[in-house]
Amino acid sequence: MNPFNYQRATAPDEAVHAVSARGAKFLGGGTNLVDLMKSNVEQPTALIDVTHLDLTHVITSGNGTTIGAGVRNSDLANHEIIRTKYPLLSQALLSGASPQLRNMATTGGNLLQRTRCYYFMDTVFPACNKRTPGSGCAAIKGFNRNHAILGASDECIATNPSDMNVALAALNATIHVTGPKGQRTIAIADFHRLPGTTPQLDTNLQPDELITAVELPAPKFAKHSYYLKVRDRQSYAFALVSVAAGLAMNGNTIQSAGLALGGVAHKPWRSLEAEKSLVGATPSPAAFKKAADLAVAGAKPTEHNAFKIELAKQSIVRALTLAAQGVQA
Amino acid sequence: MIAPQDHQDPQDHQTHAKLGRRQLSHRYDGLAKVTGRAKYAAEFPVENIAYAYVVQATIPSGTIASIDQAAATRAAGVHSIITPFNAPKLTVPGNVNILQDTNVFFSGQPIAVVVARSLPEAEQAAKLLRIEYKAQPAKLDFNAVLKDARAPKRGGGDSHRGDPQASLAKATVVIDQTYSTPIQNHNPMEPHATVASWEGDKLNVYDATQGISGAQSSLARAFSIPPANVHVQCPFTGGGFGSKGYVWSHTILAAMAAKVAQRPVKLVLGRNQMFGPVGSRPNTSQHIKLAASSDGKLLLQQHDSTCYTSLISDWIESAAGATALLYDSESLTTSHSLVDLNLGMGTWMRAPGEATGSVGLEIALDELAEKLNIDPIQLRLINYAEKDPRQGLPWSSKHLRECYTQAADRFGWSKRTAQTGQHREGNKLIGYGMATANYGAGRRPSSAIVRILPNGRVFVGVGTQDLGTGTYTILAQTAADTLFLDPALVDVKLGDSTLPPSGGSGGSTTAASVCPGVYDAAVKAKLKLVQLAIADTQSPLHGAAEEDVQTKDGKLFLKSNPQRSETFTTLLGRNGDTPVEAIATSELAKDRDTFSSHSWGAIFAEVAVDADTHMVQVCRMVGTYDIGTLINQTTGINQLVGGVVWGVSMALHEETLIDPTFGRTVNENFADYHVPVNADIHQIDVTALDIPDYKFNPLGSRGIGEIGITGAAAAIANAIYNATGKRVRDLPITLDKIMNA
Q1: Which chain B residue lies closest to A143 (C-alpha atoms)?
Q2: Whose C-alpha in B143, B536, B550, B618 is 20 to 30 A from the C-alpha of B333?
Q3: Under CATH, which architecture does the B353-442+593-740 domain have?
């Protein structure tokens, strides 16, 4: 690990000012950043600790809910508002990592979690466009069983590893940030990026912008939502495919739907087409199958991950079925 | 508990200790471990210590052209940098990389050591080394070179019997399939670690090892000093599973670094450094042909296994080894071949050979049973080996039939439907599977000292080591059983090369070796105590016949007149208040060439496979084992359960992934190298028959460390087939393989 300076910020403005120094980064729970520093993937010159800012509250705001960026994943998952009004988010959080990691990880940090691509995480591999722009992509010809089937590019096939982000996408969250030019909001759909020709950029957040909060709109899916995580063991494994499914029901008719996939793309993969196809439909295998087909339309596998296409479809049908039944994960 | 004829204790209970009679209800070292008082190799405080960091090759094949260490040398806190260009020449280079030449055989090979004031400083300086390689093309693709597999240089322990062609011609049913298992890494919780310090030409070492004797002799050879000059200590080993059985480069490098840096050095491998430099279980590709008559009698068993080996030395994962003895068949051929790859060395990993071989053979038998429409247990009973098929020798003790019966009953095997995919609960497809478990029984001579102290306590010292398996516990019990006293009065010291030598802990030999050594020493010490009493005119036992004196609960007494007695404490107090002690070395059975000794078991699995996601949950594992005397309930059953858990791991999770271009392990951490987590392990029901094998060893105990993993993965694979109708022959059975089968 490279030597670095450490500074504890006491106010968001102070943090933003401090991070504008070249090479500085915000430090939340450190569960991802510090690991990457140990393996020399990240080499910040300074860490600006933002865990002592007053960003640790979950509050009702209008019809919606605002989550402070410093709220720990465990606290968020177990918060009464989240458990009762946004169980999809609670389920997604609890399916991620381990209790120890969830106790440390923050909401803001989780949004910025970096990929688990083997070739990104080991600096001995010379080719990784995300780590070293222009160097190539070793994953395309290497082990790519865990990699993207949707929205990837010839430059990068990495996936976003977060579970929380998938639920936030299905819930249509808004990210609040503050920077030298003041505050702004970013829709979750616009927050994470597809790799394109700039896979080094995971998000549209500017380096000197600090996430202050995540805003959830009025709860729609409290009674009918399900987070299904498909993985190589029963716990403590990243998703091969995950599905965040939320339905708003009027009698036996779907009034609105939220559907996003994890483990398949560089960002949480929300499918508006699939959601639209469900609106007005009656829950049925055929309706769910149609949504599944739309959600993974255009999928393009690499050598080892073709199975993800069919797996994603089966998982979507399963998650929607359980959501419609009102089963809680 | 089953009590067949040969279960009877052949000797008088006072002259023959039945182990396990006086059980410690808890682990001898349990309290020390949970309170942190138990010190592991890297935890011993040593003054003025420096930290060593091993620099590893980043190419899989070639030579090191140059190492520019100018910047690293100037870095903060650096004491020394040792490279192949400046390393001291060692007398016995050995075949692990200890910086004696510039060859690179695998990515991750140790190629330099940085010694600094702190570990972060050593790591930081290592990054500043400018290393130039002359790369050579690397061999990394096993399947591409499988056709070029070669015979092992020193033979592969192949077997042959009968007339395979004739037997095949007679068969009505034939299974002809290939089964494969991946590379695995041991990953004991405690990383490999060595603390080394020199005083003149005397070397002190704390080493995380499965063999203090091996570490001592290897270090002595490497530095050309007498073994007596090397003091190795390892009171606790945090798991080894075979990976700490060999003296790897870091142990030698730590001692070398201490010499060069002229101060004590601590070298602890990082988790990511344990994938390659300290051995792997090689992958296997097993071609199996089973031919049987319609009544289920095996006519031919053919098992040809190929595994990778490093370019450093031949190492065979002998997957076909046990096939030669497990089932009866008139004909058999087994062979082992090797494929050279630019990877780290293969080594022992829990049940080397049997763990992988039982995957191939026991899945093949399941396939045969289905084809024959015979119950899988019945098929195994039809081909039950009443004696060792290899040489026709009788077994010293074999109760595998009872294992099948007991485990099948506990499991509820009778509820199984032979037809696949029949048992569905909601979205879960339920399946049952089973397999035979087996592992060879071995023992070696082992020495011990037993000292009876004037304060009534007993000291036991053995130059063995406890890997976490329970060696402390069973040795306290052995001394207590032999002297007929409370095991809580016994103090045990292990893991110190100044103690009577015992040998390495591996191959499930420890219990069967060290217990007889302690038993013999305790018998000798007791005799000395008896003789002291007889000769002592003030003793109530004065003048008695030796064979009339017995001990119980710290007292000597006459069998013929129990009234005449006195305590050890009184006797020793009157005789100079000094201990009585004896050293003994256990002897192997003189008639050991007249029988064959193995441990046996039957393992059953119930799985639930999700119909949509194809995720597998192992709901239950039920195993019954014939391992001779179960010396201690807690530690023994725990060993078996641990093996079964590893079977789950092998079946579903574990695989070291090597990048096909760079030869690097890509999943060298616990997030990506999957082993089961708690949520993967549900009910495990393990029992032992506890039938002593007195022919094998005077205490009736065979090894217990490895057998638990054998058969377990195959039982799960067979259960998955029963659940889904999908036969996966390539481990681990991940959900995509079930999908695509």
Answers
A1: B659
A2: B143
A3: 2-Layer Sandwich (3.30)
